[in-house]
C-alpha cells in the first residue's frame, strides 16, 4: 500500500506541474489543443487525489455500521474517477476542440508548446513505464486485457490507463500541432483537442465498466470456485458443496458463503468442529478469503436434504 501511495503522490505532483505549464503555454500561444492537454492533466491530478482518498477510506477498520469493513470505498471512488475522465476530460476537450475548428486561431510562438510537450512527454513517459513495470509484476503471464479484467485493484489499472492516454494524447497533439503550424491550417489544433477528448471518453468507458463490476459485487473466478469446491469436498464430513457465493470487499478481502451438505449422523458438536475445520483450511489456502460463512445442510435416511 505504501508503495502504491508513493507512486500516486509522485504522479500527482508531476501532473499538477504539467497542468500549470500547459495552461500557461496555451494562453500565450492561443492553442486549444494545449488547453485541452492542460484540462487532461488537471483531471488526472484530481483523479489521483480521489484515488488517495479512496485508498485511505478503504483501509478503515470495520465497525458496527460496516461489519465487513470499508474496502469498497476504493471501488466507489474509482468509478467517480471514470466519470470525471468522461465529463471533465473528454466532453470539455471535444467541446473546446469543436469551437476552435469552427473559429480557428493562428498559433502564436508555437515554440513554447513544443517545449512543454517535450517535457510533458518525458515525465508522462517515465510514469507510464513505471506503471507498465508494476502491472507486469501482477498479471502473472496473462494477456494485458485478461489481466485488467481479472484485476481487483482499480488503482493499478486506472494509473496505467491514465498514463497511457496521456502519452498517446501528447503524441496526437504534437503531430497535429506540427501540421497546423507548417501547413498554416489552424483548425488542426482544434481537431487535436477533439481527438484527445474522444480518447479520454473511450478510456472512461473502459474504466467505468471495470469499476462498476467490482462495485456491484464481482466474485471469485469459476476456476477458483472449483478449487474451493474440491478442497471443501475433500473433508470427510462433507457430502457435497451445494452453493458458493463470493464477493470482493476490497482488492485484498473476499467474503465467501458456502452452503454444504454434511453427513446425516453428525451431532451438533461434530458439525461445529467440521465447520471450524473447513473455515480454517480455506483461510490457510486462500489469504484473500477473510470472511467465511458456512450454512450447513444434512441428509436424512431417505437421501433428502434438510436445511
TrEMBL record:
Membrane topology reported for the UniProt record: Multi-pass membrane protein
Keyword Ligase: no
GO MF terms, alphabetically ordered: monoatomic cation transmembrane transporter activity
This protein's name: Cation diffusion facilitator family transporter
Domain Cation efflux protein transmembrane positions: 10-216
Cellular component, GO annotation: membrane
Superkingdom of origin organism: Bacteria
Cellular compartments annotated: Membrane
A Pfam family this chain is assigned to: Cation_efflux
Keywords, sorted A to Z: Membrane, Transmembrane, Transmembrane helix, Transport
GO terms under biological process: zinc ion transport
Transmembrane segments: 7-28, 74-94, 114-135, 156-179, 191-208
Annotated coiled-coil segments of the chain: none
